[in-house]
Amino acid sequence: MRVRVGIAVGIMALALGGCELGFTDTRGYVPDEEALSKLEPGRQSRDDVQQLLGTPASQGVFDADQSWYYIMRKTHQFAFMKPEVLDQRVVVVNFDAEGTLRDVRRYSLQDGMIVDPVTRETPSPGKELTFLEQLFGNLGKFNKLPGTGGSSPGS
Prior knowledge:
The chain is an alpha+beta fold and 155 residues long.
């Protein structure tokens, strides 16, 4: 009996040993402060900035090449649960119309705001029906089939 309990405990320990306590995932790239300190607004061109910082993750859609975005997000997820955002940093590099560096802005997780782009609800006019109203609502609304005299077909 003790041998069986020992084997069961050993198998459970091995199975639980394979479980992780979640994992941390870092995506994207934000230049370090040393590289950002080398930027000189009013003096450097797009090429100079790209040589110092690398290729941006994204560029402005509405202002052509006026804004470059460097984005990094660090999350932690346990098993199948929703990931938790641990850190998020965004560096926005702005250029003027001639392509000269105008300014550099830094944003962190605290600067962000929660946006729910899809609520999965479409409002519709009318009355909300309960389950029973839906179930019994159609009783008596149908007419008898013409020429059957109220009997079911085939009788």
